[in-house]
Amino acid sequence: MLKRKKQPLQNVARKLVTNENPKSIVSEQFRTVRTNINFSMPDKELKTLLFTSSSPGEGKSTSAANVAIVFAQEGKKVLLVDADMRKPTMHYTFHTTNTTGLSNLLTKQWMLEEVTKVTKVDGLHLITSGPIPPNPAELIGSNSMGTLIETLKSQYDIVIFDAPPLLSVADAQILSNKCDGTILVINAGTTEKDSVVKAKESLVSAKANILGTLMNNFKLEKDHYYYQYYGTGE
């Protein structure tokens, strides 16, 4: 009997389960995340949402992409922005190019409509990171970024940013202050408690609105009625 060859970790990690298998338990959990986000700010409209983590490899990018998809499936006009201009991954996730993107917008080399990509998911558009600049944090904190966010909010129901890990660089901390809400992704199997505490402290110091945490790669016991395993990685 032939054994099935295991998929490369990168392929498993970047699987858009909410699009490929919307009836799965994992997809249902992402819809639960969407519901929790919708109810997180009852007195204020949530238009911009940031996903980050304490360290690399915790699944923030996969989580951001899947949450963007379930919002689009709800009928919203959604924009997913790869704001990780150091180690971008969204162009791999959506099997597209990264020749132009966010960095080009912030340096005013290209227009918004020229860098916005239409995805295979109805209602979901994508802006990749673009060429990696020498000064990502400065671009994130620039007036151009603030102006861009206001423009995006006027054109989309919700804009989701995938930002770098908090403990590596300052980008996510800076951007969290500009967004309506922030989700901290935690890898249940590897993230150290001290890292989570430090990540939260950096968000608090930036006056970010922390909506909550998303626990990734959490194993339930086999006899649990919701037993499921979700792949790791970005």
Our Rg estimate from Cα atoms comes to 17 Å
Mean pLDDT: 87
Indicate the percent of residues in helices: 25-40%
Strand residue content = 15-25%
The SSE string, one letter per element, is HHHEHEHHHEEHHEHEHE
Low-pLDDT segments: 1-13, 223-234
Distance between the termini: 33 Å
Major sheet details: 7 strands, mixed
Strand order of the largest sheet: 3-4-2-5-1-6-7
Shape by Cα distribution? globular
Question: Could you walk me through the main structural features you see in this protein, from its secondary elements to its overall organization?
Answer:
The chain is α/β, with parallel strands linked by helices and 234 residues long. 37% of the residues lie in helices and 15% in strands. It has eleven helices and seven strands. The protein has helices at residues 9-13, 17-20, 25-38, 60-73, 90-93, 102-106, 112-115, 136-140, 143-155, 171-176, 193-205, and strands at 48-53, 78-82, 117-118, 124-127, 158-162, 181-187, 210-216. Strands 3-4-2-5-1-6-7 form a seven-stranded mixed β-sheet, sandwiched between helices. A hairpin with a 5-residue loop joins β3 (117-118) and β4. α3 (25-38) packs across α4 (60-73). 40% of the residues are buried. Residues 1-13 and 223-234 have low confidence and may be disordered.
